[in-house]
Amino acid sequence: MNKTWLIIQREYTTRVKNKRFLLVTFLMPLLMMGLIFGSAYLSTTGTEHRKIAVIDPNGFIKSSLKNTDQIEFAFPENIDTSNYSKNGYTDIILLPNFDKKEKTDYILKSKKSMGLLLQNSISNKINSAIEDQMLQEAGIKQSVLDSIHNASQFAELKAYEDKGNNVSKESNAGLAMGIGYASGFLIYITLFIYGTMVMRGVMEEKTNRIAEVIISSVKPFELMMGKIIGIGAVGLTQFILWISLIISLTSVAMGMLPADVQHQVTTLQQHNGQMVGGMSQASESAMRIYNLQHTIQTANWPLIISCFIFYFLGGYLFYSALFAAVGSVVNEDPQDAQSLMFPI
């Protein structure tokens, strides 16, 4: 056991003191935060604007299609598929006469391919316009339809997880899916990285003829156990440092917010999303921060962290043993390991 502990110490200290380990450990949280905030910034500022010419022989679509920040509808004359681009339009929609008795296709032509979300948005708008027209023909006025639509947007779904004994906790399916996907992807990447470390360690000692010297004083089981546990401890250390750095960076970012926004966020947290003390409503930034924090708090973090560690350790012990087996069969040529890694 003492020899195994010495091997664990050696594998752990040599990798933790490595400059590459320090760079990856401290730069990875900065990179992750940069990707998150960069993606959020690009999603708000880099949105593409489409100006769409609509050819409508029906006459009722124009009053129903509403412009958005991304889409601007126009109903010009003397515009067709041959000249819409020259007149400053990015797309053109050709609508037929809707018979209302059989399914009808309409055509969207673009010089540049349109994203799926925008296509779905346009399709939903046109379908809503057809529905409103049919309701008006049935005797319901447009003003009544608009008032009913606006008045009906008051219901919001709140999901709760039943804990038993009349105790429940708010849950969020989107957050759960995001945590599961991110955790699984992180475990996959780290198992591959640290499993490869084990394989290279075995290959190095075997190709340098060090293994014969080590085996004379250490049992093969103790050697492999020391390598696997030592490198696994490096992975856990990196995870703990990443979590600590991300929490620290988040706290620093919160501290850099304007004082009035921080005060509004604190008030919202203390009063379950309600503003008190003479303030009618919180700013949009404060509401976004509060909603993000409130959503994160709905997760069962002790269970998530403990399950993550459990599956990481279980998967690491299993796959590192397979990677060590690959390293043990490699002789002089390290390239032999590439073909053997594919089944793993």
Write the layout of secondary structure elements.
Blueprint lengths: L1 H15 L2 H27 L4 E6 L15 E4 L16 E4 L12 E4 L5 H22 L4 H10 L8 E5 L2 E4 L2 H35 L3 H5 L4 H36 L3 H12 L13 H14 L3 H29 L6 H6 L3
Parallel strand pairs: 1-2, 1-3
Antiparallel strand pairs: 3-4, 5-6
Helix pairs in contact: 1-7, 2-7, 5-7, 5-10, 7-10, 8-9
Structural class, please? alpha/beta
Order of helices and strands: HHEEEEHHEEHHHHHHH
Percentage of β-strand residues: 5-15%
Number of strands: 6
Helix content: 55-70%
How many helix segments?
A: 11
Record the strand order, biggest sheet.
2-1-3-4
Main beta-sheet annotation: 4 strands, mixed
User: What is the chains' assembly state?
Assistant: single chain
Low-confidence spans: none
Radius of gyration: 30 Å
Arithmetic mean pLDDT: 77
Q: Note the overall shape.
A: elongated
Quote the distance from N terminus to C terminus: 30 Å
Describe the structure in your own words.
The chain is of the alpha/beta class and 344 residues long. Helices cover 61% and strands 8% of the residues. The strands form two sheets. It has a four-stranded mixed β-sheet, with no helix packed on it. It has a two-stranded antiparallel sheet with strand order 5-6. α1 (2-16) packs parallel to α7 (220-255), α2 packs across α7 (220-255) and α5 runs parallel beside α10. It has helices at residues 2-16, 19-45, 116-137, 142-151, 173-207, 211-215, 220-255, 259-270, 284-297, 301-329, 336-341, and strands at 50-55, 71-74, 91-94, 107-110, 160-164, 167-170.
